[in-house]
Design a protein that fits this description.
The chain has 192 residues and is of the alpha+beta class. The chain has two domains: 3-91, no CATH class; 102-190, Phage tail protein beta-alpha-beta fold (3-Layer(bab) Sandwich). Helices cover 43% and strands 29% of the residues. The chain has helices spanning 3-29, 35-57, 80-91, 112-121, 134-137, 150-156, and strands spanning 61-68, 72-79, 102-111, 127-130, 140-147, 168-173, 176-181, 183-185, 188-190. The strands form four sheets. The chain has a three-stranded mixed β-sheet with strand order 4-7-6. Strands 1-2 form a two-stranded antiparallel sheet. The longest helix has 27 residues, at 3-29.
């Protein structure tokens, strides 16, 4: 191995080590990656694979000849580094995030309180009840909730109640949801 090849090997190895370190930090530090960040991560993974392939195989060549139909032929050739780069680039899984939505099935025997607490727990949050008595909190509910937002889901539970619940409002107050019963006494709202 010549001195130039040794320098190239160490520079390439250092570059790959920095990329791997970056990928590890990006994976463990960031809870959720945006689509733009995923595209950058896709490029860096492909680049890392390309450099690793070039380091391992050197100047090894690959050739791919294939036919599409009867009249079209495709031929691709390049080094192992390019082959690995494009293999990662084209096979990196594209994730389409689901739309923001709340889908929840409330089994028989659950109460209004249980359903609201369990729904908010899915968001790592909680529910605080204002103005409800124990009978109302223990009202049986059953059915399915399909809404776009958690506040709408908490409001939708009322329609699933087996006994009438008072009208109520839901407000997000970091870090939880406040569910407030609306009671009217001679036209004046009271919060019990």
């Amino acid at each position: 191995m010549t001195t130039l090849q040794a320098y190239q090997l160490w520079i390439g190895l250092g570059f790959v080590a920095v990329l791997v370190l970056f990928l590890m930090v990006a994976f463990f530090i960031k809870e959720k990656l945006s689509e733009d960040q995923r595209q950058i991560l896709r490029f860096l993974c492909a680049l890392c694979a390309g450099f690793a392939g070039a380091l391992i195989a050197g100047d090894a060549l690959f050739k791919l000849n294939t036919s599409i139909g009867t009249a079209t032929k495709i031929a691709v050739s390049g080094t192992a580094g390019f082959a690995l780069f494009f293999a990662i680039w084209f096979t990196f899984r594209q994730i389409v995030p689901p739309p923001d939505a709340v889908h929840f099935s409330i089994p028989p025997g659950w109460t209004f309180r249980q359903a609201a607490l369990t729904l908010t727990k899915q968001e790592k949050s909680f529910a605080h009840f204002d103005g409800f008595n124990e009978e109302e909190l223990n009202t049986p509910v059953e059915g399915e909730v399909h809404t776009k937002h958690m506040t709408d889901a908490l409001l939708a539970i009322k329609a699933l109640a087996r006994k009438p619940l008072p009208a109520y409002q839901v407000a997000f107050e970091d870090p939880g949801y406040r569910i407030t019963a609306q009671r009217e006494d001679h036209g004046i709202q009271q919060h019990l």
